[in-house]
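Here's a chain:
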Amino acid sequence: MLKAILKRRGPAAISAAAAVLALSCAAHGDQMADMTSYLQQNMPKVSVDLLKAACSEGKLDILYTNVSNLSKYVDEFEKYFPCLQVSAVANGDDDNLARFFAGEKQGTPPDVLQLGSQITLVEQVAKKGMLLQYTPSDADKFQSLDPGYVISTDHQAQGILYNTDSIKDSDLAEIKTWKDATHLLDPQFKGKRLGVVDPHGAGGGSYVVAYVLYKEIGSDNVKKILDYLQVTVYPGSGPAVNALASGELDLVIGNEFNAFAASQKGAPVQVWYPEPRSASYTGIGIAAKAKHPNAAKLWIEYETSLHGNEQISNYFSMAPGRPDSNDVRPSTKESWYKAPEALYKFDIDDMIKSYDDVVAPYPSK
């Protein structure tokens, strides 16, 4: 518009152009004032200089783990920071890694990489020098296996998922801790059918809970349970929980995520939680070769802010990483849901070196 006015030249055109420019500057000033106000109220440790630097970059490219409603989360971020145009794609970890490595090789990786497995992000990306060192303002409130490079903004727990038409709470009552999982060999479970997700893809929730069982009851007992309950191995949590909901299975040891979704749809599926709570952590980091590093930092700051982290549970149905965030997932309001007493403490080096022993009892899918 300004260019068209200037083509007309003359005093009137110049005055009109000046008016348009003044309006544009005023609008930009109002936008910056609104963003600064939001920043100071909700992300007070983040500097206005970072906001301005991010806005000067203007864009942000993100690869995110395969969650639903990512676009809604992005829309909310852009509402608070309209100076940024965000391109965000949700894929499985394998697809995201392939795209990230291809972009990194060409010098144009996505600015932000988020994987469903923090272990995978640390081992395959961070340790190879592909991530930028950055510590968010509230990093001390989050779990991290590689502080300064990778942080986990959310997690999902694992437990014993069961079909309430065939399994009663009293059947599971003795399983208070993971050491008690040998009670799955008790008479009330004879003839019941168990599903698990193939743990051979180390790092995800299926491997995490398999590792917990290995540490707490040993490989021999794991093998006895799998045989006693006529285990079926599934390639993913979705198919396993679908089989549970239909009555094809009675039990699934795995992630709570799909159980929550099935329960909300009215399926007879609940979760029994042995303690301490087994949980798999996502991981997020900034590409070392990011074209928009300041915009990426602002995104990380938003995800780790109190409001931004709470919205993760709202949109993604993942448990927020901050202990002071409200977990607003609908299933957490069900009478059968129990908040964690404590989270299981993992030794990443031991998880990696124990891989062969952990997966040995499980048939490979």
Q: What stands out?
A: The first strand starts at residue 59 and ends at 65. Residues 20-24 have pLDDT under 50 and may be disordered. DSSP finds 14 helices and 13 strands in the chain.
